[in-house]
Amino acid sequence: MKGFSGFPDGKMRLTQVPNPFFSDLLPIIDNIAELKVTLYAFWALSQKEGKVRFLRLADFLHDTEFIKGLAPTMNLATEAMMDGIERAVARGTFLHINIESADGKMDVYFLNTEKGRAAVEGITKGEWRPNPDDDQPISLLVERPNIFVLYEQNIGPLTPLIADELRDAEQTYPMRWIEEAIDLAVQNNVRKWRYILSILERWRQEGKDDGTGRRDSQKDSRQSIPHEYRDIIKR
């Protein structure tokens, strides 16, 4: 299970969800993909501008960060997302309309609200049509956990002394190195900052292989273990 570091301090943007979602819709949704797609639509529409807001199928497909949370592989996740959208349409949460554009057919989705129903009626009567070039696709932005959160989630409680050392490390080493060194510490069950720091220092002095083709991950992991720890870590 992937952990969650909690909502950040300070002011945050909020997404409005109508009360009938909780009282009428949530109790009858029995599919996790449909639930996620429905909640995503509330958020995605809040990112749009203008009096008439809608989502294209491309908006869903473009957001890989959202899709990959639906299944282990992208193919399965995309299938799950499409199934979730179809279920939301069948249930009446989404209003779906297909529009001809210069690039071919365009699938457009509205929430089944007063404005959404009026928009669909206007399209069917030929009073207006969405412009496929009005918006760029939107996507979720993932805020990477900072070094203090990484330490607390993987190593242990944060002390003032450790916090100072983490700040120094952040100025000295690439964040990606720190993340990988912490991951190695977890893999090897040596949850000590000194161990992590020795890995980072070794990479700094001897160079770090960042190649994507790893011949033997277990061997590479072993080579990353500082000499003073190799005898106590069994492979």
Strands of the largest sheet, in order across it?
A: 1-3-2
Number of helices: 12
* % residues in beta strands: 5-15%
Task: Choose one word for the global shape.
Answer: elongated
Give the second-level CATH assignment, the architecture of the largest domain.
Orthogonal Bundle
Run of helices and strands: HHEHHHEEHHHHHHH
- How many domains in all? 2
Overall SS class: mainly alpha
How confident overall, as mean pLDDT?
83
Q: Return the CATH topology of the largest domain.
A: Arc Repressor Mutant, subunit A
Q: What is the distance, rounded to the nearest whole angstrom, between the alpha carbons of the first and last residues?
A: 25 Å
Q: What summary fits the major beta sheet?
A: 3 strands, antiparallel
Helix content: 40-55%
Q: Please report the first level of CATH classification, the CATH class of the largest domain.
A: Mainly Alpha
* Cα-atom radius of gyration: 24 Å
Number of strands: 3
Uncertain parts: 138-143, 211-223, 229-235
